[in-house]
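Project standup — Tuesday

K.O.: blocked on the structure for the chain from last sprint. Re-posting the sequence here as requested.
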Amino acid sequence: MTFPYSDKVLEHFKNPRNVGKIENPDGHAMEGSPACGDMVGVHINVDPKTKRITDIKFESYGCASNIATGSIITELAKGKTIEEAKKISWKEASDALGGLPPIKSHCSVLAVEGLRSAIHNYEELHGLVKEQKPTTVEILRKRLKKVMNPLSGLDLVQTELVKDITLDKGVVHIDVDLPADHQFATNIREEIRDKIEPLWDVETVEVQFLK
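H.V.: unblocked you, prediction finished:
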């Protein structure tokens, strides 16, 4: 039986580059879900003048391909401008690793999504988003699908913990069907604010726990 991973994949799996977390990063994102077994977190620092990525770290929760692609993505992106880094494709990441088994190609897609989401987070936080469409409840709901319910590994919307979302003159109010003293309440509140506050026309995010 032929071993499915290339030597390059194994090298990046055993000795991943740029592992970790940047404290107070200029942009960050988490993609994936523990329910499907793979997650990638990407943190970036960007030079404000040149818009080049000066530092990048990743956190991986998953298989060898997940770790290897997170590693190679950081290597490909470091030193590039954010516009150049946006153009890095899943195929480029896979090719740089000498190829991935077809069943694992989603790992390279996930790492690329993490990088692009971190860049988008940076652009939102620094007022660089060119198309500033008005925020809607549907946009808010879509962002809340990125907030995980730690008890199930699924998102808050899918597990029906989000009971109501209102938006009025820049004030977002979200009702969450958990007790205020729940062990994960503080973390969930912070993650909700992290996903919603960067929106250009949102001024305040209120999270209310209903039990």
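K.O.: great, moving the ticket to review. The two ends are 55 Å apart (CA to CA). Residues 28 and 157 are 22 Å apart (CA to CA).
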